[in-house]
Amino acid sequence: MKKLLPLLLALALLLSGCARREDAPPDPVQDPSPGTEEPSGPGGYPLELDILRIEICRGGLGSERLMEAARTLPELLRSTLAENQSIIADTVQLTIGSSPAATVQALNAGAVDIAILPAEGFAGQETEAAVLLASGPGANESPLWADSSGAFQASICAAPTDYGLNLAARAGKEGDLPTWEEMNRARWGLLEQDSLPGRRAVDLWLADSFEGNTTANLSHVTVYGDFDHLIQAAEAGEIDVFPRDDSDPAARSGDTAEFLNEKVFSLGQTERFYDMVLAVSPEREDLSAPALNLKDPLMYTLTQLCFYDGTQTNADGTPLFSGVSFDRETRLLCQDVFGPYRYGWAEDKDLDAARRLLTLEGHTAD
After folding, report:
1. Which CATH number fits domain 154-269: 3.40.190.10, 3.40.50.720, 3.40.50.460, 3.30.310.50?
2. I need a surface site. Which of 35, 96, 203, 351 has the fewest CB within 10 A?
3. Does residue 9 register a pLDDT over 50?
4. What is the DSSP letter of 140?
5. Average pLDDT value for residue range 101-110
6. Are the beta carbons of 135 and 344 closer than 8 angstroms?
């Protein structure tokens, strides 16, 4: 009995210690090292930062418009990012890139955290920066609450001429494209050489499909000023083959849509190309980490700044954004800077077509 009593006492102490374990306070959390920010909240955000450095590069804007953007947008970005519970920054620093090459260089060096710049300009640079978002035409047609994924893309169409119908029958029967010789005998309608869906995307499609041949190798080409005149020429029987702008709303409604959908035959479709991209510096993997998933909040922020006027609602009728709406002047400024198209999720491989096109045109990565 004397030996048993100490054992019972020890067992009682052990059990009482286990019973109190659930109520015991957690171990104290170590303070992060100076300069380190830790994500908090559901989904890993909001991310709290002392400063967020953003650089924009947008060609064609005058100095006064750029100065207005530099003066106005830092606070708009800071407050809207906070409203969307993505990044809470004490300060947003906005810089203007002199060129896509200079902006990508700043990204590579970690001099800026996030850059918004032309997709083709980004694709032409050597960089490990992470692409999170891209914009392009077509996305603006859907409601603001719907996922957006717009891009420049064209279909290569055979017009309802005798020769165009022969090409369509050849492709439809065999399931393959006509030969280069057959395509070269057709009367082609194209846009000017700087048109992405009306010429340049067609060049890449031809090069991929016909052993490197491009529109420069075609024997019968008529150049039109815009897609309206191009389609009119196809309706009039003046051309046999032409590109259709798949992002053009006119191609989906009215008499034009009826002609394009019922009278012409698609021989193929070009790759997708984008207008602008949002990329994160390789030195800021905390911002591009999949676990943090800043794609949605950043996309919502740009959508709100560029397009939200307070009248748009979700599918259930509730306000689209809980934060403020913006007047027309502010929305137009944001569209001038960030581009006129809505942003959607993207990744680096989405720019491979742009890289191949630049290579085809003789450009090399800087």
Report:
1. 3.40.190.10
2. 35
3. no
4. G
5. 98
6. yes
* C-alpha to C-alpha distance for 204 and 364, rounded to whole angstroms: 16
Residues of the chain within CATH 3.40.190.10 domain(s) are 154-269
- Specify which residues 87 forms β-bridges with: 47
Task: Provide CB contacts within 8 A for 132, sequence distance 6+.
Answer: 278, 279, 280, 288, 294, 295, 298, 345, 346
pLDDT of residue 174: 60
d(CA 202, CA 215) in angstroms, rounded, equals: 7
Task: Look at residue 339 in the predicted model and tell me its pLDDT.
Answer: 95
Residue 70 in tokens: 């530099």
- Residue whose C-alpha is closest to residue 155's, from 48, 265, 59: 265
Phi, psi of 55 (to 5 degrees): -120, 135
- Which stretches of the chain are DSSP H helices? 4-20, 63-83, 100-109, 119-123, 162-174, 180-185, 201-209, 227-235, 254-262, 285-288, 295-307, 328-338, 352-360
- Two tokens, residue 153: 């893309």
Q: Which fold has domain 43-151+274-360?
A: D-Maltodextrin-Binding Protein; domain 2 (3.40.190)
CB neighbour list of residue 355: distance below 8 Å, 6 or more residues apart: 123, 124, 365
Grouping H, G, I as helix, E, B as strand and the rest as coil, residue 274 is coil
Residue 17, pLDDT > 60, answer no
Give the model confidence (pLDDT) of 204-213 as tens digits. Answer: 999 999 999 9
Q: What is the dihedral of CA 254, 260, 261, 267, to 10 degrees?
A: -160
For residues 339 and 334, give the distance between their C-alpha atoms in angstroms, rounded to a whole number: 7
Model pTM above 0.85? no
- CATH 3.40.190.180 residue ranges in the chain? 43-151+274-360
What backbone torsions phi and psi does residue 51 show, to the nearest 5 degrees?
-145, 140
pLDDT of residue 311: 87
Give the mean model confidence (pLDDT) for residues 31-39: 41
